């Protein structure tokens, strides 16, 4: 059981991400599934390392689960919040840098690599917390902080290639 525990936790994130599709945004069910996804993302890698069961499959499975979670949360949240055009432009620039980094790494290594750098983890934490703050902090303020961190993470990632 412990051999597969990290992958089971990652699978829970995929299941909860799909479940989140059916939850009304900002409802108790939404927050429970959202938090379950986030907590599972924080602990699956730690569990894999503690149980000495880190694998390439687990890393890729984690990245796939992250993509599904991000896509679901984004699809649910974006229609409910207003984001200024200047913020959209900044987000687009960050996305272009991140996609460019992925393409360049793929061309060089012939593998899809999604680095789990400290700055990427900090970016992920801020992005995860952002929807939880929408009722108390204006999106422009919280998103600006997240974008500064994400920009630094993306450019740092580029420099470390």
How is this structure best described in words?
This protein is mainly α. It has two domains: about 80 residues, no CATH class; about 80 residues, no CATH class. Helices cover about 75% and strands about 0% of the residues. It is built from six helices and no strands. Helix 1 packs antiparallel against helix 2, helix 1 runs parallel beside helix 3 and helix 5 packs antiparallel against helix 6. The longest helix has 25 residues. The N and C termini lie far apart (about 35 Å). The mean pLDDT is about 90.
Q: How do the strands and helices of this protein lay out in sequence?
A:
Elements: H1 5-20, H2 28-50, H3 56-77, H4 85-109, H5 118-129, H6 139-159
Helix pairs in contact: 1-2, 1-3, 2-3, 4-6, 5-6
Task: Describe the structure concisely.
It is built from 6 helices and no strands. It has about 160 residues and is an all-alpha fold.
């Amino acid at each position: 059981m412990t051999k597969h525990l990290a992958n089971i936790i990652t699978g829970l994130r995929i299941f909860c991400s799909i479940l989140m599709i059916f939850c009304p945004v900002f409802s108790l069910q939404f927050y429970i599934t959202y938090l379950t996804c986030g907590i599972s993302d924080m602990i699956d890698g730690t569990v894999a390392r503690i149980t000495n069961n880190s694998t390439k499959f687990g890393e890729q499975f984690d990245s796939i689960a992250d993509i599904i979670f991000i896509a679901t949360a984004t699809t649910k949240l974006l229609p409910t919040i207003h984001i200024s055009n200047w913020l959209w432009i900044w987000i687009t620039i960050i996305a272009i840098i991140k996609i460019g980094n992925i393409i360049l790494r793929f061309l060089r290594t012939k593998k899809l690599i999604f680095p789990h750098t400290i700055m990427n983890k900090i970016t992920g934490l801020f992005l995860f917390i952002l929807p939880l703050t929408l009722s108390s902090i204006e999106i422009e303020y919280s998103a600006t902080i997240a974008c500064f961190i994400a920009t630094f993470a993306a450019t740092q990632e580029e420099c470390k290639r």
